[in-house]
């Protein structure tokens, strides 16, 4: 009935109103509309709603911006095309800002969820998330002792969904140094997918120290990561793997200690 009353695009003007209560109520109405079906979400987008919501989230704070954050997540959840409209409207930056700077965990959790909805569709969507340095921020929130349990769950789910699509290896590699094992396994899985078919990526992975890091992980963690690490190691000659293994220096020193053969 609300949609039949043809409130679009007039309600978008209310999102830009000088009164913050009018803004919030308008954003709440849009959120309640776009969350139901892809068709309603598309109606909002085609009316210019994505850009209006992005501006609203960027220029508000606290609980006022919460319905806008959620609306962007609902729009993005339905399809890669709708998620792309949020990316094109530069919606990632204000969502990231909310994740970092909002003091309330429930708002941070909403931002984490929405970012996950934006980035979970294709490698291109995940690349957009990675280009905005969101992965590191999600990981930091997930690992923070100050984060609520719900925030940690939302951040972990978002990370997992984005990492499964992300082929931007240069963005994934730094996370290996900080991430716990339950996140590292998703990072390594992407390397195992990309490296066998990308010669430049294989070379870069060695030069950046990534391959050495994997060998160190194999020594310290192993277990559930060992199968994925084996797939990565299979991309390289055995001599290179041995060279970057933690025991390589010890083996060389052992040869110095061994008596020469007669």
Q: What does this protein structure show overall?
A:
Helices cover 70% and strands 0% of the residues. It contains 18 helices and no strands. It has 262 residues and is mainly α. The chain has helices at residues 10-15, 20-34, 38-46, 49-58, 66-78, 80-88, 92-101, 105-119, 123-131, 134-143, 149-163, 169-172, 181-194, 199-207, 210-220, 226-233, 238-243, 248-257.
Give the percentage of residues in beta strands: under 5%
Q: What portion of residues is helical?
A: 55-70%
Order of helices and strands: HHHHHHHHHHHHHHHHHH
Q: Specify Rg, calculated over alpha carbons.
A: 23 Å
Which outline best applies? elongated
Query: Could you give the count of β-strands?
Result: 0
Poorly predicted parts:
none
Distance between the termini: 95 Å
Number of helices: 18
